[in-house]
Amino acid sequence: MTCHHEPYIEPWCAPYGANRGYGMVEEKRLQLDKAMTSKCGSNHLSLMRTLAKLTSILFAFVFLGMQFVPTTTTPKPSATTGVHMAEVINPQVGAILDRSCQDCHSSRTTWPWYSHVAPVSWIVSKHVSAGREILDFSDWANEHHSADERMLICDAVSDGRMPLPEYTLIHRNAKLSKRDVELICNWAAAGH
Q: Which of 172, 175, 170 is nearest to 112 (CA)?
């Protein structure tokens, strides 16, 4: 018989001149180590699964709890709600502004389903409130607007700040073409 000095030692081998009983003791020790490793490994795996489940449950409760937190600022509708920019200014430019700007810059906001789910609802509400505070097309017909105000609109669309990139990512039809930007800037420069 040949002896192999591998992790699993045959009972008849006496490694490095040790007594014959050593091989059997070593074999039992290796079997015990193997059993403990597999048992600890399954305990470790079980612990990881339990931890993953508890973490998922915690995130679900936090997400559900967030739904009960109201938006910080609820955008207030304007006094005039039914006015389209296409009815107030150049119809071609007005149609572009209605399509690309009215959700944040008028009281004619279309609130999609995700605008009612926190934390997205908080972000959308904040953007709409800020947009209306800066420029509200709902009141456009009732107020006098300077050439500077119109040129600010031209500047915002010319350099790509408006509509917001995150808005056009979801609302593809709100993207402005070069022709749209040109029409808006021509309208702004004309002053009427």
A: 170
**Comparing C-alpha atoms, which of 47, 17, 15, 49 is closest to residue 29?**
15
Element (H, E) at 118: none
- Residue 146 CA, distance from chain mean position: 38
Q: Return d(Cα 142, Cα 108) in angstroms, integer.
A: 16
Burial call 119-137: b when 16+ CB within 10 Å, e when fewer: eebbebbebbbebbeebbb
Find the DSSP H helices in 67-79: none
Q: What is the reported pLDDT for 76?
A: 55
- What b/e readout covers 45-80, taking b as 16+ CB neighbours within 10 angstroms? eeeeeeeeeeeeeeeeeeeeeeeeeebeeebeebeb
Q: Using the predicted structure, report yes or no on whether residue 162 has a pLDDT greater than 70.
A: yes
Q: Distance between CA atoms of 11 and 24, rounded to whole angstroms? A: 5
The per-residue pLDDT for 191 is 73
Prediction pTM value:
0.61
Q: Are 147 and 181 in contact (CB under 8 A)?
A: no
Which whole-number Å values give the CA distances from 41 to 23, 37, 44, in the listed order?
26, 6, 5
